[in-house]
Amino acid sequence: MPGITEIVFVSVAVLLFLSVVASKISDRFGVPALLLFLLIGMLAGSEGIGGIYFDDPNIAQAVGMLALVIILFSGGLDTNWESVRGVMKESLILATLGVLITAIILGYAAKLVFDIPILMGMLLASITSSTDAAAVFALLRSKGVRLKGRLQPLLEFESGSNDPMAVFLTVGLIEIISASETSIFNLILFLIGQMVIGGLVGIVMGKVALYLINRLKLGYDGLYPVLVLALIMLTFGVTNLIGGSGILAVYLVGLSLGRAEFLHKRSVLRFYDGMAWLMQIIMFLTLGLLVFPSQLITIAVPGLILSVVLMLIARPISVWLCLLPFPMPWREKTFISWVGLRGSVPVILATYPRVAGLDETGLIFNTIFFVVLTSVLIQGTSIPQVARWLKVDDPDADEGPQYPLELTARHGWRGLLQEVVISPDSPVVGKAIYELGLPREYLIVLISRDDEFLIPNGSIVLEPNDRMLGLARPEAHAKVNEIVSAPIADPLVTSV
User: Fold this and answer.
1) Closest by Cα among 244, 160, 264, 261 to 203
2) Helix 151-178 to helix 118-127 angle, to the nearest 10 degrees?
3) Domains and CATH numbers, the chain
4) Alpha helix ranges (H) inside 78-147
5) Which of 99, 281, 445, 476 lies at a CB distance of 3.0 to 4.6 Å from 129, suitable for a disulfide?
6) What's the CA gap between 432 and 326, in Å, rounded?
7) Rg (CA), the chain
8) pLDDT by residue (tens digit) across 252-285?
9) Which pTM was predicted?
10) pLDDT (tens digit, 9 = 90+) per residue, 415-433?
11) Residue 190: helix, strand or coil by DSSP?
12) Are 13 and 44 spatial neighbours (Cβ–Cβ below 8 Å)?
């Protein structure tokens, strides 16, 4: 007779397998993967064909927070700091003031639609106020859409940094509603304390993590991702214990490591990319199990009204107000307004009022769940087409090749693998490598041409759009960039 352990193993395996297959459907038809994960969870739940009864918001919240920590860390780790640095002001204003404006507008709408106290309306709106760019870029990649200019880093950094603000507002409002003696002034102090402590701990732990990874010299490569997991969990736990935002701290640790070189960086990146996908699947399956579809029917009409207010009024107003000081084409502002896709964080935060005893009827949780579903279904499926309509996509963008090698950094050695692209008007086009006068300490590792990789030798003649992967110290890379991009004298002539 099969035991409970075997049944659990088979059930989990089937759900994970279906979720992986669902990602293929997402790539093929452009349906957001998050929506499919949720639907699988709902089908497996007590009112679905699976019949799995699950109604414990405490477990759902714990699973969601663990998943969120890993997803945010992975997002920070994978962020290209050089591209993000140019959009810091715009992103941070959208992630703080933009979230607040969205919450205020949507909060008043929720008060009118549901006839609830304004603080409960603000709580519902605060839970809904953060965006999910991971889902957006997964959709764009599946459709082969690349965004122009600074749009992608701006959206990426905004979505990664607006989750802490949504958490601040949600936790603070729960405190005010639960304890009527708590004032707005105390809420402001609470938010400032959360941000300051979370920011400081995140910066310090980022430096500590980098030092430990490069100095411990572990005997097994597979232990480095485990070490990183221990450090980010420690960061989250300690920050929360001392009154800071663990979410913000973990994200900053990811950013710090992402902009630095450390041992086995590429393998750690791959590991946490896989972990982030696993956590998203587990989280959305759990939340899908937690919801009862029959309860969504009763809030369908008011939920749809809130979704319309969020998509067409609250998000656009907050974006246009926040971006007023910045010169940006109206097409880009309009696209940013539409890419307010709601995802994992609102559904996780929707468990907070239930755990605190403020949502006994499930009104907030079911409404948030419905708003997220409609956002993913309507906005998510239309984003690639909207990008083309507004002409903010870049059909000629090229992410570059994936080279079949990686560099393992060593402490004290400053050598880097960097790529240089040979533009059609470069002075080195048509010249053999031996003619270029490259620095002696610069080693060409591979040359990418069309869809092939060439093993370099001195007689290879460079062609337009070749990609040259070189190994050297930063100063040697700088010299090579000067040679490739600026007119140069014939080295045979200058040597005479």
Assistant:
1) 244
2) 150
3) 55-274+292-389 (1.20.1530.20), 416-494 (3.30.70.1450)
4) 81-84, 88-93, 99-114, 118-127, 133-142
5) 99
6) 46
7) 25
8) 899 889 888 787 887 888 898 888 888 888 887 8
9) 0.76
10) 777 888 888 888 888 888 8
11) helix
12) no
